[in-house]
Structures are given as structure tokens and as C-alpha cells.
TrEMBL record, chain A:
It is found in: Endoplasmic reticulum membrane. The chain crosses the membrane at residues 12-32, 76-101, 133-156, 176-198, 219-243, 281-302, 309-328, 348-369, 381-406. InterPro entries: PIG-U (IPR009600). This is GPI transamidase component-like protein. One of its GO terms (cellular component) is GPI-anchor transamidase complex. The lineage of its organism: Eukaryota, Fungi, Dikarya, Ascomycota, Pezizomycotina. It comes from Chaetomium thermophilum (strain DSM 1495 / CBS 144.50 / IMI 039719). Pathway: Glycolipid biosynthesis; glycosylphosphatidylinositol-anchor biosynthesis. Belongs to the PIGU family. One of its GO terms (biological process) is attachment of GPI anchor to protein.
Automatic annotation (TrEMBL), chain B:
GO terms for biological process: attachment of GPI anchor to protein; GPI anchor biosynthetic process. Its main location: endoplasmic reticulum. The keyword Cell membrane does not apply. It is a multi-pass membrane protein. This is GPI transamidase component PIG-S-like protein. Belongs to the PIGS family. It is found in: Endoplasmic reticulum membrane. It comes from Chaetomium thermophilum (strain DSM 1495 / CBS 144.50 / IMI 039719) (Thermochaetoides thermophila). It comes from the Eukaryota. Residues 248-267 are annotated as: Disordered. Keywords: Endoplasmic reticulum, Glycoprotein, GPI-anchor biosynthesis, Membrane, Transmembrane, Transmembrane helix. Pathway: Glycolipid biosynthesis; glycosylphosphatidylinositol-anchor biosynthesis. The keyword Transmembrane helix applies. The chain crosses the membrane at residues 80-98.
Length: 425, 578
């Protein structure tokens, strides 16, 4: 098809452009990657490239990478990165790996966009679906989003999780439930929290099954999916066990996320709260925070059952706000999926406020962090205040997007109300 | 089917508002419609909105437009959404809340701890073995003498806890047995005399040849004499121990008429009280600080190391089974004492130490410090003796639980203080050290030291027991205090060492066990994590829970309440229809 060729050419151009941008930053501004690696907005204790280097060093010297309590990432990163030439002497291949991962994510996003799932799912077809952006635009907004670029340049390992999640969604959309489950298992293995995406991705995969070899019984389908995820996760964990020789990586990776034992500041809401927390209530509030993070899954899946992709998008937004170690990388993933809902964007009420709040945080966040840590003229409250605003901006976006999606759904039911002002009660 | 009440009520209120207070068009431009958003749409909110006042419509139509009835599918879905949140709260939240906020209370053997504190678990008994060596006597003569002496001792003894057990020792081995506290060595002589050997725990007794009792004698002056001498030798220890027992109140609750402290005369008790207030609390290690203070620029050096080595080290060595010592020294020039009179009176002595300026740190490291201050100056101490006429002059005095001061007169200009000049001060300090460690005064040094170790083990035993008792009472009195496993471990350690100490009382290892028991009991009692929750009243828990959980709970509770209300109404409607 003619259009296909054009698309292919455009895709190649886009990807080449994105890759050139990244590689140019890597080579022309050699100090920037290390600067960004040290930024708390980009590198969290569970994704930091610096900590990965430390783990890699220990691993290559036959010491357990988790000795010293610095490295909190999945053990399978270690053989991958030790295959590459040492970063200190020959950084190009490592940088190239990160660029490739970004491009793979963009490719998955492109597939999701082209499927049209956002506008027309199995149970709901939006009347506005015609008004949408092409895969090219959506991939471009992802690839040239400053957050994505900064994450890539900062070489945070969260890009691997992002890539795995996007591929899980893309596989689910394209009717390959087991591929989706495998990708989800990878994402969960790397960061644990994507496991919470299992219900909506299962719904999405169930809705988009290939009709020729579909499993019709929801129970059987969910059982098969869960088993797949469990088996692949078990295999990955088993490999990690063989690799490190002990189960201590569980406590060092997932345990740290569950207990928040590393209180390095980040853009999330947890660290300050748990610095201030009374010791005797710490475990209780850890459980409360985790339950809070996971309690949205059920409610959203039930409420927006007809649009599982919307559930995934909203959940990713919620995770970017409320997970224990969030970074702008999580926000970039959320922002990558938001343009899929181009058709409901006009229904949003606070677009200007959201954009302003996010810009405000982007400018003031680093400044406040500087005041606290380097200038010493501020204190932890400065940075925490700005992360609160950041959380507020993102939650506004999540709420407003949810409102828009629901209103879109509701207007199908009540066509006479289209374009009229409403009040939520 | 839809609920009739839901949609009737707003209409009625609207009518009311319309009549009573006409709304100014344009002030509120909103339209109330039912909009299903995850779990938040509720009928009661419509009512509340109506009650707030004015609902105007943007559209110019004057009539209230009734929102179409909610579809049953939507209602059911809303129910499921609310249920999904509540399932997480009830199935995961509540168990976790219960699990993480219950106060951990390890089981403690409370009754046993109280038994120890009240002296029911252990009767402190000091069986002191005394060997008798009589090389010049025949076996049966010696045995008779021992039997008679034992009888005499038993008659004299009024304190059941403190036995002296005599036994006939083999002639050749001089007190090789560690358990033997004292050896009585009987030698023939001209008259009946007795004296303690200054270097060994030996009592030398000489007897005239005719003093040997015959096998059938029921009493003997020699035996009585030996018995009373022995009793005298141990009188102070016995008094101290019985004072300790009575001061700790270890048996008032047992109902007995205090057999332990009954033998104490008031003046003896008073002197014992004075002595025990002088002595420092027992610690396995003491830190000795030797300070040279001088009011001028000289002397600026002293041979303290050699002086300690020569004059004090021997005593430190013999004390080493009981205490460890660490030593440091310092010289302070141009030091002004707190009192600058030429003649110091008794009142001046207490303010002589210039605590504000002199660098005498209260405690270095974990061990308590004993200060020994040599002050170069020719002040004299004048204390009128109690009789009035005579005065006692002295160079040194002891400061209870702190240390001692020695005034060393010296010709000015002596730049270096040689060790022989320090002989007197250090010998004085040595005797003060013995007082400060609580050593008894009477008897020979070996006897005093072994008796110190017994007194200390009794003291530690009683103190550990009373700490256990306090812990037990605390645990009973405060049901909200948490008891971490470390406390339970500490109590178990204390109890087992207390038991050992109780069995071995009177033997050297008792001190070790008592020391471990006391340390473990103190650690358990002062466990930090126990008090963390103690001063945390329930009102504060509201402050912990409410800021976060309050906002979360409101929509959850409202959602559940509306669902239940709706369900009850539907039941009611159904019932009426039937």
C-alpha cells in the first residue's frame, strides 16, 4: 500500500531524528549525562544509573552486587550491562542501548495509536474518534518530550520498564495476549509495580483477542493470563537466583520498594512522609500507602470496563504520582499515552491550569532542590512543597482526563447534552 | 425501576426555593444533572445541593429538567466500584492495621521476677568454709577442737545467712582449695593469741599446751576463743550483708519478723549507711584520674607513672578480680581552688574543688570516674575534734562517691615532682580507693578483699532482683507498654545468672554471675523501644490517623452509606408492592 510506504519512510525519519538528537546530546554535551544521572528528579534509588554502575562493579569483581546496600535493581541488568564494553572507557554502546530502548518504546506506542483502541474499543465507540492524532504524532510527542529525552540521557533504568509496559499494551492491543503477559512479567520483574496493571491489560487483551483462536470464557482467559505471568516471573526470578546465588536480591530490590528503606528525596510523596513518621506506625503507613496505590485498580477496571486502555493510561498516571520512587520517567510514560485521547482533550476543563502547574514545577523544582541541598538557604520543606504541587498537577491531569473519558461515554447515552456545561455531583 | 423518592425530593425543594427566594439569573450558572462518576453520584447529594439555595439553569427554559432515571446497570456498576474499594479495605487494610499496630508484648515470667524481688526465690546464704590446720595435734584432738569450735560458733551466730563451716584441713596443703575463705593455723605456744596474716587469708592461733580439750569435753576455752576471734573477723562483713538485705527490704513481705537485720545495733547501722553512701556504685570498670593542681607555674611535671606503679599498683592488682581500672593523669597550672583560706575548716572542704574551672570530667567513656587530686599548697586542715580541745590536722580528705584530695606542701620553685614525694599522697589515695570501692575496714587485706567480693555479689544480686521486680511491676501497671523480644531475653539471662549466683554465693564466681545478671537486668529495664509508645496517649493516635485516613474514609463511608440506604429503600418499595 502506498500509505504504508509513506508511513515507513516517515517512521524511519522520526526514529532517526530522535536517535540523532540523543546521540548528539551524548557526544556534544559530555557533562550533561552525568549531571542528569545525579538529579533526583530522574534517578531514584531503584533506577539510578550510578547505582547500576556500582552493582556492576561489584558483580564483575565477584562480590554480591547487593552488598553495601546501594544497588536496588533487578539482577538481570548485570549480565546485560557487563556484556557491553565498560561505560568508563567506551560509553557509546551503552548510550546506544538506551536510544534503542526509547525507539522500541516509541514503536510500541505507534502500534497502540494505529490500532485506534483509544477511540473505538470492543464495548464502546466514541463519536469523536475521528479527531485523532496519527501514530507518527504520538510517537513524536513521546520521543521529543523533554522528560523522555532527559530520562534517556540520564540513563535511568526505568526506560526498560517503560518499554516493557508499552510493549505489553501493544501486544494486548494487537491480539497477542501471551506476548502481552510476557512483556508485563518483564516489566513487573524490573520494577514490581507494573504487576498492578495485570487486570486492565488482561481486560484489554480479552477484548482484542483474535476471533479465530479466542478463549471465550473470561475465567479461563484470566487463569491462563495469570498463569503465564506467574510462570514467566518465576522463570526470571529463578534465573536471577542462579545468577546471584542467593535470594537476597528479593529483599534488596522488591523489599526496598515495599519498605522504602532508602529515603533519598524524589519527586514523589513518600519520602518526606516516612522521614517524619513515628517508627511504631511506619509499617502500618507503608501498608496504607501501598494499598492506596493498588486500590484504584479494581474501581477503575469496573467503572471504565468498556475502555481498558483508558484504565491503563489513568493507572499509569496514578502510579507516577503515588508510587514509592517515582521520577519524571513515569510522568513521561503517562504523558506518552495521554495524546491517544486526543478526541476527548477538548472535554477537559483545566488544561491551562494543568499545563501551568507542570511548567511551574519543572522550573521551580530544581531551583528549590538547589536551595535546599546546595545553597543551604532552604530546607526539605521547600522541595517537598514543590513535589506536592507536582503531584497536584498530575492528579489534576488524571482527574480531568478521567472526567473527559467519562463525559465522552456519557454523551453517547445522553446525546442531547453534548456541548452543555455540566456539574459533577 | 428507579427510586421514586430520589427524584421527587429535588423537585419539591426546587418548588420551595422558587416560591420563597427567586433566584437572580446569572449568579450561579450550573446545571444539576445526574452524572455517573465512579462511586460519587448519590441521591443525597442532590438533596443537599438543593438545600444550599439556588439552582439556576443556563438554558433559558424555566422548568426544572428531570434527569433521566439511572439505569439499573449503572447502579449495579456503582455498587461494584464501591465494593471493590471496601473489599481492599476490609480484606487487606484491616488485617494489616491489626497486624502492624498491635503492641508486641513478649511473655515475661512475672511471678518469678516478683519472687526474686521479694526475696522468695533465693535466700542469700553464705557458707564460708574455714579450714583448720593443726600440724602439731593428733587427728582426734583436732577433730574434737573443730567440733567444739563449730558448736561455739553456732551458739554465737544469730544470722542464719552467714555460716562459718569449719573443717579439718590436710596438714600439707596450705589452703589450696579456692572455696576456703580462711585458714586457721594452730600452733603450740605460750599463751592463747591470735593474729591475722597480713598477706594471706590465714589466722595464726597459738595455744598453751594445756588448752587442748579432751575428747569428752563439752566445752573448751580454746574453742570458744577461736570461735569468738573468727566471729570478730567476719563481724563487719556479716553486719554489712545483713544491712544490705534489710536495706533492700528483701523479706518484709514474707511475714517473718525480719531475722536478717535484727542483730544490727543502731550505731552499727548508721556507720554502715555512711560507708555505703561513700562508696561508688558497683561497676566492673572504674576510671581513675590523677590530677596535679598547682596555684603557680611549678611543678610542671611529676613522676606519677612510677609512683602509681610503686605505691598503688599492688592494690589495683589485688582488686583486679573485682574491678578493672583505667588510669589517666593531668597537670593543671595556675589553678585556683574554690576556697583560698590558709586554714581550711570542715565547711571549706566541700567547696574546695573548683568545679567550674577545673577540668575534672564527670565520666570518661562508660565507666564511672574516681578523681584523685593532688593540690600543691601549704594550706592546712583544721577540724576541731568532738571532744573540743584536741584538733586533728590532716592533709587529705575523701569526697564521697567522687574521689579524694591531698594537699601537698612544697617549697615553691620545684619544677619536677619526683615519685618519692608522691608516696604519701598515693598511699593515702590507695586507702581512699578501698573506701570508695566499699571495702570493709577491719581485718587483713586478703580477708577484706574476699569479703568485698562477697558483699558486692550480694549487693548486685539484690539490685538485679529489685530491678527485675520493678520491671515486672511496670509491665503489670502499664498494659500499653510494648515488650520487645530483647527484654524477654534480658530477663531470661538475668534469671539464669541470678540462679547461678544464688547457688554459688560465697564463692568467687558468684560475683561474675551477679554482675552479668545486674547488667542484663539494667539493660532490659532501660530498653529504649519500650518507652517509645509509652507516652503516646490515644488522642495522639487520632492525630496520626486522621490527617491521612480521614479524607480517604469520608468518600468510602459516604459511598457505603448511600449504597446501603438505597438498598434498604428498594427493599422497602418491593415489600410494599408485594
Amino acid at each position: 500500500m502506498d500509505g504504508g510506504k509513506v508511513t515507513l519512510g516517515r517512521a524511519a525519519g522520526l526514529y532517526a531524528g530522535a536517535a540523532v538528537l540523543r546521540l548528539a546530546i551524548f557526544s556534544l554535551l559530555p557533562a550533561l549525562p552525568d549531571l542528569l544521572t545525579g538529579r533526583v528528579e530522574i534517578s531514584t534509588p531503584v533506577t539510578s544509573f550510578k547505582r547500576l554502575q556500582e552493582g556492576l562493579f561489584l558483580y564483575n569483581h565477584n562480590v554480591s552486587p547487593y552488598d553495601g546496600g546501594v544497588y536496588h535493581q533487578a539482577p538481570l541488568f548485570l549480565p546485560l550491562f557487563s556484556l557491553l564494553p565498560s561505560y568508563a572507557t567506551f560509553p557509546f554502546l551503552t548510550n546506544f542501548l538506551y536510544v534503542i530502548v526509547d525507539l522500541l518504546s516509541a514503536n510500541a506506542l505507534w502500534k497502540i495509536a494505529e490500532s485506534g483502541e483509544a477511540g473505538a474499543s470492543a464495548h464502546f465507540t466514541s463519536p469523536r474518534r475521528e479527531k485523532r492524532w496519527s501514530g507518527f504524532v504520538i510517537a513524536a510527542t513521546f520521543l521529543f518530550n523533554p522528560f523522555t529525552v532527559a530520562t534517556c540521557i540520564g540513563r535511568s533504568t526505568s526506560v526498560f520498564t517503560t518499554c516493557a509496559i508499552l510493549h505489553a499494551v501493544a501486544k494486548a492491543v494487537s491480539g497477542a495476549p501471551f506476548g502481552a503477559m510476557a512483556a508485563l512479567a518483564f516489566a513487573s520483574y524490573l520494577s514490581m509495580y507494573p504487576l498492578l496493571l495485570l487486570p486492565p491489560i488482561m481486560l484489554l487483551a480479552y477484548d482484542r483477542q483474535n476471533p479465530t483462536r479466542a478463549i471465550r470464557s473470561p475465567l479461563k482467559f484470566s487463569l491462563a493470563c495469570t498463569t503465564t505471568v506467574a510462570l514467566i516471573s518465576a522463570a526470571l526470578l529463578g534465573m536471577s537466583y542462579l545468577l546471584t546465588g542467593s535470594w537476597e536480591f528479593l529483599a534488596a530490590t522488591y523489599g526496598v520498594q515495599l519498605t522504602l528503606s532508602d529515603l533519598t528525596p524524589n519527586v514523589g510523596l513518600w519520602w518526606y512522609f516516612f522521614i517524619e513518621m513515628f517508627d511504631s506506625f511506619r509499617s502500618f503507613f507503608l501498608a496504607v500507602f501501598w494499598l492506596h496505590l493498588s486500590c484504584y485498580v479494581g474501581g477503575l477496571c469496573v467503572r471504565i470496563r468498556s475502555q481498558p486502555l483508558a484504565v491503563i493510561t489513568l493507572l499509569l498516571g496514578i502510579f507516577a504520582i503515588f508510587k514509592p520512587y517515582p521520577s519524571i520517567s513515569d510522568t513521561s510514560l503517562f504523558l506518552a499515552l495521554v495524546p491517544l485521547y486526543r478526541h476527548v482533550l477538548p472535554l477537559m476543563r483545566y488544561s491551562f491550569v494543568i499545563a501551568a502547574v507542570i511548567l511551574y514545577c519543572v522550573l521551580l523544582g530544581p531551583a528549590f532542590y538547589h536551595l535546599w541541598i546546595y545553597a543551604g538557604s532552604g530546607n526539605a520543606n521547600f522541595f517537598y512543597a514543590i513535589t506536592l504541587v507536582w503531584g497536584l498537577g498530575q492528579s489534576l491531569l488524571v482527574c480531568d482526563l478521567m472526567f473527559a473519558v467519562l463525559r465522552d461515554e456519557w454523551e453517547v447515552e445522553r446525546p442531547e447534552m453534548v456541548g452543555k456545561e455540566i456539574r459533577q455531583i | 425501576m428507579h427510586d421514586p423518592i430520589t427524584h421527587v425530593k429535588p423537585r419539591a425543594e426546587w418548588a420551595l426555593i422558587d416560591m420563597g427566594r427567586p433566584c437572580v439569573p446569572g449568579n450561579v450558572t450550573a446545571r444539576v444533572i445526574k452524572h455517573p462518576v465512579a462511586g460519587s453520584a448519590s441521591t443525597s447529594k442532590v438533596q443537599r445541593l438543593g438545600a444550599e439555595g439556588c439552582i439556576t439553569m443556563t438554558t433559558p427554559q424555566p422548568l426544572w429538567k428531570e434527569p433521566p432515571p439511572e439505569k439499573p446497570a449503572d447502579k449495579r456498576r456503582r455498587g461494584f466500584v464501591i465494593l471493590s474499594f471496601w473489599l481492599i479495605v476490609v480484606l487487606l487494610g484491616l488485617p494489616i492495621w491489626w497486624q502492624t499496630t498491635t503492641i508486641y508484648r513478649a511473655d515475661l515470667p512475672l511471678q518469678e521476677m516478683l519472687d526474686w524481688a521479694e526475696g522468695r526465690a533465693c535466700r542469700p546464704v553464705f557458707p564460708l568454709r574455714i579450714a583448720v590446720q593443726a600440724p602439731s595435734l593428733h587427728d582426734h584432738e583436732a577433730q574434737t577442737l573443730v567440733r567444739l569450735t563449730q558448736h561455739a560458733l553456732d551458739d554465737l551466730n544469730d544470722f542464719a545467712g552467714h555460716h562459718l563451716r569449719l573443717s579439718l584441713a590436710k596438714q600439707s596443703a596450705p589452703s589450696a582449695d579456692l572455696d576456703v575463705v580462711l585458714t586457721v593455723r594452730l600452733l603450740p605456744g605460750d599463751a592463747t593469741t591470735a593474729h591475722l596474716d597480713p598477706y594471706e587469708p590465714v589466722l595464726h592461733v597459738t595455744y598453751p599446751p594445756n588448752a587442748i580439750p579432751s575428747a569428752s569435753a563439752s566445752s573448751s576455752t580454746l574453742a570458744t576463743y577461736i570461735a569468738s576471734t573468727l566471729r570478730e573477723a567476719f563481724a563487719e562483713e556479716q553486719a554489712t550483708i545483713s544491712y544490705l538485705l534489710s536495706a533492700n527490704g528483701s523479706s518484709p513481705s514474707s511475714g517473718e519478723p525480719r531475722p536478717l537485720g535484727q542483730g544490727l545495733a543502731p550505731d552499727v547501722a548508721e556507720s554502715l549507711a555512711k560507708r555505703s553512701t561513700r562508696a561508688l556504685r558497683y561497676a566492673p570498670t572504674y576510671h581513675l584520674t590523677f590530677s596535679l593542681f598547682t596555684s603557680g607555674s611549678t611543678p610542671s611535671s611529676w613522676d606519677i607513672e612510677k609512683a602509681i606503679e610503686d605505691y598503688m599498683k599492688p592494690v589495683l592488682d589485688v582488686l583486679s578480680p573485682i574491678h578493672n581500672f583505667t588510669i589517666d593523669t593531668q597537670i593543671q597550672l595556675y589553678a585556683t581552688p574554690g576556697v583560698q583560706n590558709q586554714v581550711l575548716t570542715k565547711e571549706d572542704l566541700s567547696s574546695f574543688i573548683n568545679a567550674a574551672e577545673w577540668p575534672l570530667s564527670p565520666s570518661i567513656g562508660g565507666a564511672p570516674t574516681i578523681n584523685f587530686v593532688v593540690f600543691i599548697g601549704n594550706q592546712t586542715i583544721y577540724i576541731p575534734s568532738s571532744s573540743g580541745s584536741e584538733s586533728v590536722s590532716s592533709h587529705s580528705w575523701l569526697i564521697p562517691q567522687w574521689g579524694a584530695v591531698y594537699l601537698l606542701p612544697l617549697t615553691s620553685g620545684t619544677a619536677h615532682l619526683p615519685s618519692h614525694e608522691l608516696k604519701h599522697p598515693l598511699l593515702t589515695f590507695t586507702s581512699h580507693l578501698l573506701t570508695l570501692t566499699g571495702t570493709p575496714h577491719s581485718g587483713s587485706l586478703p580477708l577484706r578483699l574476699s569479703s568485698l567480693s562477697r558483699i558486692r555479689s550480694a549487693d548486685l544480686l539484690l539490685r538485679a532482683s529489685s530491678t527485675l521486680g520493678s520491671l515486672a511491676r511496670l509491665v503489670v501497671a502499664l498494659p500499653s507498654i510494648s515488650i520487645p523480644p530483647s527484654v524477654a531475653d534480658g530477663v531470661a539471662t538475668t534469671l539464669s545468672h541470678l540462679r547461678h549466683a544464688c547457688y554459688t554465693l560465697g564463692m568467687p564466681e558468684a560475683l561474675y554471675h551477679a554482675r552479668v545478671a545486674e547488667a542484663a537486668a539494667e539493660r532490659a529495664f532501660f530498653e529504649k523501644s519500650m518507652v517509645g509508645q509509652l507516652y503516646f496517649p490515644d488522642e495522639h493516635k487520632v492525630a496520626v490517623y486522621l490527617p491521612l485516613l480521614g479524607p480517604v474514609a469520608v468518600p468510602l463511608l459516604m459511598g457505603a452509606w448511600n449504597e446501603i440506604l438505597g438498598w434498604v429503600r428498594r427493599r422497602g418499595v418491593k415489600g410494599k408492592v408485594e
